[in-house]
Amino acid sequence: MSEEKKERKVSYYRKPDYLTLEQWQIALRKQFALKQEFEVENLTQEKVFSDFSVYNSKTDKTYKVAIRDYEFGMNFCNCPDFKVNGLGTCKHIEFVLHQLKQDKFNDKEWKKGYKPVYSSLSLKYGMERKVFLRIGETAKQDLQKMAKNYFDDNNFLKEEKFAEVDTFIEKAIILAPDFKVYDDAMSFIIDKRAKENRIKIIDKLFPEERDNTKAFKRFVNADLYPYQQKGVLFALKAGRVLIADDMGLGKTIQAITTTEILRTHFGVTNVLIIAPTSLKYQWYNEIKKFTNNSSIRVIEGNLDKRKHQYKETETYKIASYGVALNDIDYINASNFDLIILDEAQKIKNWQTKTAQNLKKLKSEYAIVITGTPLENKIEELHSIVEFIDPYRLGALFRFLDKHQLKDETGKVIGYDNLHDISRALDGILLRRTKTEIKKQLPERIDKNYFIDITKEQEEIHEDYQYIVTKLVSKWRRFGFLSEKDRQRLLISLGCMRMVSDTTYILDQKTNHGKKIDELIEILKDIFENTENKLVIFSQWERMTRLVARELKKMNIGFEYLHGGVPSAKRNDLINNFNNDVNKRVFLSTDAGGVGLNLQTANIVINIDLPWNPAVLEQRIGRVHRLGQQQNVQVINLVSKGTIEHRILGTLSFKKSTFDGVLDGGENMVMMGESKFTKLIKAVEELNEEEINEYIDDKDDDDIKNDKLDEKEEQSNQNIISKQEEPVQKEINFKEPKKQTQERGETKTKQEVDELFTSGLDFLGKIGTVFNKLQTGEISVNDFVEKDEKTGQTSLKIPVKNAETVNNAIKSIASLFNAISNN
């Protein structure tokens, strides 16, 4: 390669044609290393071929680098990237190499090459890890002769010799006292031997040739189905496992049974369960119900209290994701034997701080639970698997290169080789679908009811559609949108979805919409059968408010769950619905789409459709699950001709991707357009002529005004490459996902106080706070104040000063003026 090409800067987002995938990734690391200000210390007396410590003051982390080669191949770093990327280099190695190469006095040292004196056992990282023997000069011939019994021709430890390798190590040290065994190699050997021993014990406890139902009863107060028994044995043998069974198939009881067996036979005494806030006490109740172990603690309170709770003597500790995210150091200091992640789609986005920090958690055993490990894109599955085994799917860049299909512009148009992912996950991924055990589950019937919209709905829908059309045309011309335009796009799409239900969600002074009337007629038919019970879902709390009003008029008993209901009271709602024959309806926002067992119902009504098929299945899975004794009917109310109508097509692609990877579906899934284009395709196709006409009418001055400078363009291209889906919570004025991070529960009231601290950001803060209202992390009482003298109730929003309020109002006015003018 020429010097010109070596010095040429490479794009972070697209591989140059003149480089291979590996060359591109190596070039990126070299390029990035030149921008760093690491502190390097030589740990030996050697000038070049030595061990170095590399300190990053920004992260306060130190890594050990071993330089053994001029380029790469024999060099080593103990950073996570080096261990996974399989390139033989990383930014720390490249930084040290660059420094060494700058010193011309090192030329002679480079030419001498590395001549190892001592021998060592190390771990070679790549697509699979292997124990490697490097033989130095000390007792060289004797070690070579002895190694033939333990290592193959490439000096890798033979699979059948792991149980005997300690004998080799003892003899090697006698022959060569300077013989070294590196920590990662020894840990790998110990883990492999421990797994083999664990499998032997499990096979003795639960022989395949007999019915083990009674054997499992010794650990939990439940009769496990045969597939659940197999699931427990799979998890026990894996040690670190992803349980991705379909919703309603009993993932929780499998995790609890696995834990109890590990506790009884394998010395597990300290277990941490990390779950959504709304499910903490459900885990508490399930553990008490299914085990005789009452040693359970829910981690709560301020940080000073929590850091001590992790070290208490209870076997089970249960924490929310928000709390765990803030307590990483205290959790690791508590030496948990087993960590269980429930609803692990929380870590599906590897770019978020939630995912990055939770992957720092350490434990010998891990159980990751999610019925939806892949919701929108294959990167999500890769991110979740990283928590279990970061080496299993290899580096993300290789994974995407193998499985993504791109067009000539580099846009992702589909996925390929999906079955290879399933094969790669063999041994750690456990997934069974309801189809596989359909004989144990009742029938499910799905129906879509298409409903006309009113003139008022149509006008508002078209207004927001026009805004989206302009933004789509701009994106088509330039390939990017500014942050402000992206925000307007998300707001407009959200408003289109809301008004598809009723104008009341956007303007509580009006209520134009036909869904409630249609729902009433459906309910009349349903309640002719006195045994019917149903669950009604809507994404929007205001819509459920209208439903509640009608149920009261009809004198229908119901329970009502929304984000303002404290998690501690949710079990009461569930119990009332399941046990009281007069409670015919369970009305819920998507706050109840996860973790609820509502098998006493036999009908699910979705007043609106979410963007994501996994959310829809979560709703239905609350009723159509193991233990259901009746046929289940699912009714979807869809407003004709709206963005909601076109969501049905969007759901189809995502479901096919999910099936291809995990459920043995098609091996290739074609998108037909990029991810961001897919988001707005419904509107683009509906108004194609208007978009083209709008672009044709733009004059040169308009084009110039629309262009951004190179720096802003690169920034927005970066945003677009990461953008996947619009917001899908109730309040549509939510910050973009990349700006939102999960916080500890102790910070939620602070968010309320900060609502009016900035202008345009006010809209984003409203979204964040009301999302927490919907999930129950804060309550309506945080906003409401009652005058003790007059009894009048008022809205309370703390602010810093009057100027803050003034700035916020001006910004909001400017935003809506801009929208109305366009």
For the record, the CATH class of the largest domain is Alpha Beta
Q: Please tally the helical runs, counting DSSP H or I stretches of 4 or more residues.
A: 33
Q: How would you sum up the major sheet?
A: 7 strands, parallel
| Average pLDDT figure | 79
The rough form would be described as globular
Biggest sheet, spatial arrangement of strands = 10-11-9-12-13-8-16
Distance between the termini: 53 Å
Q: Please, how many domains?
A: 4
Number of strands: 25
Low-confidence stretches: 1-5, 698-780, 815-822
Strand content: 5-15%
CATH-assigned fold name of the largest domain = Rossmann fold
CATH superfamily heading of the largest domain: Tandem AAA-ATPase domain
Q: Cα-atom Rg, whole angstroms? A: 30 Å
Structural class: alpha/beta
Task: Provide structural commentary.
The structure is a single chain. The chain is built from 33 helices and 25 strands. The protein is an alpha/beta fold. The chain folds into four domains: 3-191, no CATH class; 206-392 and 428-432, Rossmann fold (3-Layer(aba) Sandwich); 440-452 and 514-639, P-loop containing nucleotide triphosphate hydrolases (Rossmann fold, 3-Layer(aba) Sandwich); 743-821, no CATH class. The strands form six sheets. A seven-stranded parallel β-sheet has the order 10-11-9-12-13-8-16, with helices on both faces. Strands 17-22-21-18-20-19 form a six-stranded parallel β-sheet, sandwiched between helices. Strands 1-2-3-4 form a four-stranded antiparallel β-sheet, covered by helices on one side. α8 (183-205) packs antiparallel against α10, α20 (455-478) packs antiparallel against α21 and α26 (643-662) runs antiparallel to α27. The longest helix is centred in the middle third of the chain and has 24 residues, at 455-478. The model is unreliable at 1-5, 698-780 and 815-822 (pLDDT under 50).
